[in-house]
Q: What sequence folds into this?
């Protein structure tokens, strides 16, 4: 009984390891270098940060499509504030604080609509996706705002400790925080419960509204953090900075075994999913797969992951009722 | 009844995660017989049924239909053979109408176009409903129906297919006496038409009344097959659960007034369209029973009292102070416990383990350090309840969605028992629970009442109502129509008041 469980638990890590071995074998010169690995980690760090927050919404059975454009808004707000404060350290702190506030406000807005009007999450966040993008465009006049100073800002995305850049550490810290909340706290227990059966949770005395609100705020907050990190990595603020990240986050989560129907999935899984996506991209680049075809491959991988997941679950209940 | 065997199941083995739940199980059903399948919670009845209907795959064994070996892989196979099943966990789809559910996959078409003939479908469904006088409309959406009504839809779905074998897994678990007696009539007439029926129920009188033969399972093994003449209630229970319980109690009882002060007082509670001006009192240490038919409004009153639904007017006093239930959360903190009637929809989180489910209402009493829950306490609490309620399997990590129906119910009840309760409301607490465990639950309710907890019991099982309650209120069409507080009462008294046979007499309150 226990055996089969752990097999399932570790199957993702095993597939990931297998993938790494395969890449090492076919690209022995370019893949297993410190530089490349650190690059891969750097590229997945943002997705890792985002998915650590988005997973809260997904566990509730919702989805946050606004992540990418909220990142853009957050990046723009940060960079604008820094520029308006003459690239001072004070400007950096103020910019970050403002971006985080924007994140919280955005999350609260999503939560409010989902709770009060029972609008499906994908509709609400689909709408705010263009709203956030629109605001960023107005703020920037649809131009790229570069920001090469001060060090306090550029270090966020580019500074290093040892071989790894800061964002990797951010990802680890935020993922650990998520892990703690989801696995150790009452809030975490409640999130899994609400995602699994909302009505039963309400009857059990859980404030579904509160849980929903908090989850949306956390999701938007990590999007804001992701935006700040990305702004620093690219040393610029641009409305479209985060385009595409929303699907990447969903891809990572789904590959990592997070159920979009809510109620099941782990942060470990989601991070492994993010790594998988990162490695897949890296592998395709190393093998010179044209970027035009990469989307196709990614789509196929998602379908396979989901199919595998469903097959495993079916096996588990031994049927399909 | 002929001796022809319509279904034979031989040497079925089945394991889940390496745990074997069926061991070489045999079952033989004759043409035109009502064959009861009995066994305690978790004995493997539903699993066997699901294997027969192709919902689960068997590990080993054979299934013969009219002497020919068959492979059952899906519901389509079932329908093709002429088998239909009423599942314990109800397979109706909430987003569809009653008619759509009844004719799912067999919708009448407009000529050769393949388009569904809705008008005809609704008509056919309504005829079926009217024939049995069920309180349903063909066009009702299932998600707006109470659990008992959904069960009726599930039954109609099974009946509409004109099968030669009808399997019923606890069809009466959420039905009240009136609907149940209609079902029994249906079963009798099906028997006359040579339709075979496999009948699973934990309500033993039903089984004794209906069955021509019965097969008893014990821990996933065949324990006995009895012909009608061989059925002796005591022995059946003994074979089933390995001990004797007296289940004859509860046909009648003499009540005496409890003169203590009222601990809970409800006055003029009204929720438009559901119930009106409901007033009653419960004394400390009293078990107040609520009887009535499906749709009488009992569940709705309880939900409002608990804070799960809003009401328009009325007042509630607890221990002399006015109490306004605004949410379940507030009520739980105040000292309420609530076992909802709809186990699957409202009782538990199927994906979560037993220990997570039990802990759900109890995080205020589970130790936490720096926000971090002590998982040891969580598991300890669960293990205590597993012992107290004899839940099987005794594995705190077992996903509740994968447990047997009766054991799920024990989880739903168990989570309240670790708390310091003031008021416990239980709505159909023993739905799907076996005789042995039922007895345990009655003892638990009595114990709580003796400790001074106010216990409110809503039940459609008249025997249970008479046996457990200290006083009984009967509701009909959203109103309390009768109070049975003193003297000798019988099940018939409740039934009469519930169906309005007796001259209408309102209880002043
Ligand atoms: N899908 C499943 N996965 C894992 N275990 C299962 C599954 N279905 C049933 N079981 C286990 O098989 C055993 C038999 O369950 P089953 O539902 O057949 O019992 P039952 O006789 O119908 O009981 P009840 O009277 O409570 O409905 C139980 O121990 C249950 O936990
Ligand atoms: Mg069962």
A:
């Amino acid at each position: 009984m226990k055996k089969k469980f752990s097999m399932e638990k570790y199957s993702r890590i095993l597939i990931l390891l297998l993938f790494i071995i395969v890449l090492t074998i076919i690209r022995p010169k370019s893949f297993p270098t410190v530089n490349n690995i650190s690059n891969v980690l750097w590229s997945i760090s943002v997705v890792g940060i985002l998915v650590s927050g988005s997973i809260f919404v997904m566990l509730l059975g919702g989805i946050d499509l606004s992540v990418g454009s909220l990142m853009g808004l957050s990046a723009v707000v940060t960079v604008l504030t820094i520029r308006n404060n003459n690239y001072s350290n004070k400007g950096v702190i103020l910019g970050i604080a403002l971006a985080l506030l924007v994140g919280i406000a955005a999350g609260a807005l999503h939560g409010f609509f989902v709770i009060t009007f029972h609008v499906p999450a994908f509709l609400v966040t689909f709408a705010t996706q263009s709203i956030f993008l629109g605001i960023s465009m107005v703020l920037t006049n649809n131009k790229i705002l570069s920001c090469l100073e001060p060090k306090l800002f550029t270090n966020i995305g580019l500074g290093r400790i040892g071989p790894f850049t800061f964002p990797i550490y951010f990802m680890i810290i935020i993922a650990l925080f998520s892990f703690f909340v989801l696995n150790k706290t009452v809030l975490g227990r409640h999130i899994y419960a609400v995602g699994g059966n909302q009505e039963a949770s309400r009857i059990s005395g859980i404030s579904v509204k509160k849980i929903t609100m908090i989850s949306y705020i956390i999701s938007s907050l990590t999007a804001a953090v992701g935006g700040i990190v990305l702004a620093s990595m690219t040393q610029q603020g641009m409305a479209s900075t985060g385009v595409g990240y929303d699907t990447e986050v969903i891809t990572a989560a789904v590959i990592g075994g997070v159920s979009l129907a809510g109620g099941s999935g782990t942060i470990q899984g989601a991070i492994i999913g993010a790594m998988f996506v990162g490695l897949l991209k890296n592998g395709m680049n190393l093998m010179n797969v044209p970027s035009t075809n990469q989307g196709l491959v990614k789509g196929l991988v998602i379908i396979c992951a989901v199919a595998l997941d469903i097959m495993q679950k079916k096996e588990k209940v031994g049927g399909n009722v | 009844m002929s001796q022809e065997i319509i279904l034979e199941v031989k040497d079925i083995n089945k394991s889940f995660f390496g745990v074997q739940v069926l061991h070489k199980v045999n079952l033989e059903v004759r043409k035109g017989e009502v064959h009861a399948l009995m066994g305690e919670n978790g004995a493997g009845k539903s699993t066997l049924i699901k294997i027969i209907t192709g919902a689960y795959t068997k590990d080993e064994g054979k299934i013969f239909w009219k002497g020919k070996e068959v492979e059952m892989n899906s519901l389509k196979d079932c329908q093709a053979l002429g088998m239909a099943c009423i599942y314990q966990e109800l397979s109706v789809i909430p987003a569809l109408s009653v008619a759509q559910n009844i004719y799912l996959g067999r919708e009448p078409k407009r000529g050769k176009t393949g388009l569904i003939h809705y008008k005809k479908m609704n008509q056919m469904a309504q005829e079926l409903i009217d024939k049995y006088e069920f309180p349903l409309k063909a066009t009702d959406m299932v998600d707006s129906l109470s659990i008992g009504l959904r069960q009726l839809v599930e039954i109609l779905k099974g009946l509409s297919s004109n099968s030669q074998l009808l399997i019923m897994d606890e069809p009466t678990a959420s039905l009240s006496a009136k609907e149940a007696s209609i079902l029994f009539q249906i079963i009798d007439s099906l028997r006359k038409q040579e339709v075979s029926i496999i009948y699973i129920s934990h309500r033993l009188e039903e089984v004794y009344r209906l069955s021509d033969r019965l097969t008893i399972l014990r821990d996933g093994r065949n324990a006995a097959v009895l012909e009608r003449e061989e059925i002796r209630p005591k022995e059946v229970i003994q074979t089933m659960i390995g001990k004797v319980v007296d289940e004859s109690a509860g046909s009648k009882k003499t009540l005496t007034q409890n003169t203590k002060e009222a601990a809970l007082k409800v006055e003029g509670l009204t929720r438009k369209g559901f119930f009106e001006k409901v007033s009653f009192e419960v004394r400390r240490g009293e078990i107040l029973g609520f009887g009535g038919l499906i749709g009488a409004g009992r569940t709705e009153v309880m939900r409002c009292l608990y804070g799960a639904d809003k009401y328009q007017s009325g007042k509630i006093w607890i221990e002399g102070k006015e109490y306004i239930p605004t949410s379940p959360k507030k009520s739980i903190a105040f000292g309420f416990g609530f076992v909802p009637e709809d186990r699957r929809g409202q009782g538990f989180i199927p994906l979560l383990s037993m220990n997570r489910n039990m802990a759900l209402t109890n995080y205020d009493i589970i130790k936490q350090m720096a926000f971090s829950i002590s998982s040891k306490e969580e598991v300890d609490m669960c293990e205590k309840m597993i012992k107290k309620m004899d839940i099987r399997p005794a594995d705190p990590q077992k996903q509740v969605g994968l447990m047997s129906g009766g054991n799920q119910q024990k989880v739903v009840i168990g989570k309240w028992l670790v708390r310091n309760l003031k008021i416990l409301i239980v709505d159909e607490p023993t739905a799907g629970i076996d005789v042995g465990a039922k007895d345990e639950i009655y003892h638990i309710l009595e114990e709580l009442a003796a400790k001074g907890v106010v216990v409110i019991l809503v039940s459609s099982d008249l025997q249970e109502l008479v046996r457990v309650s200290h006083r009984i209120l009967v509701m009909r069409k959203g109103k309390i129509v009768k109070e049975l507080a003193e003297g000798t009462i019988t099940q018939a008294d409740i039934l009469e008041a519930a169906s309005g046979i007796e001259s209408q007499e309102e209880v002043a309150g």
Notes: Chain A has a mean pLDDT of 88. Chain A touches chain B at residues 1, 3-5, 180, 184-186, 189, 192-193, 196-197, 199-207, 263-264, 316-321 (CB under 8 Å). Strands of chain A lie at 145-146, 160-161, 164-165, 236-237. Residues 89-117 of chain A form the longest helix (29 residues).
